[in-house]
Batch of 2 targets.
Target 1
Amino acid sequence: MVTRPASDEQSADAAMAAHDLAAANGDDGYFDPSTGLFVMTADYHLRRGACCDSGCRHCPYT
């Protein structure tokens, strides 16, 4: 399950749009529009095969 980042609605929408684009392109992640940090997609985490317990934004294992 993909979750929204804990921030204002506009930033959350921009992050989700960036996630969806990266996932559609088969990219491992995207640069968060608000922070500039690289964020792994849910698909990347599924390919990885396990949770690393780092609290990743799009972790499908939580």
Note: Helices lie at 9-25, 42-48.
Target 2
Amino acid sequence: MKEQYITKEGMSELQQHLHTLKTVRRREIADAIHTAKEQGDLSENAEYSSAKDEQTRVEQEIAELESTLKNAQIIAKKKTDIIGIGNLVLLHCNGEEKEYHVVGSNEANPMIGKISNESPMGQALLGAKVGQTIHIPVPAGTKECTIKKIS
């Protein structure tokens, strides 16, 4: 598996989520399976099937998180003269200013301004400097933005 870039905060969130899955969710699912087994015939027991499906999903998620954490490379605080993973970037696009945080793909959440370094926007930002105009690929062509601040 390739190296996964992640912030300290993101690492902490993933570790907490993994802990919750291993302790709380596993117990809840085990209880649901036990309760369903007490109802008798398992071949026609929807609750049992649902609990077993959820158990499979949670175990897969646990395995993925463990692999991600094993291969995680914590992002150190970056310089602010060029954009790298971990930087906050203030962009001016189409008369509006927006701030984005360039993060690894596991932390990406564009709805809250966390942009993956692997996304088209993230790739356009990496290596750019304040004052530089970048061209971000969008479905309708390209979007032109100017970098106002890097922190």
Note: DSSP finds three helices and seven strands in the chain.
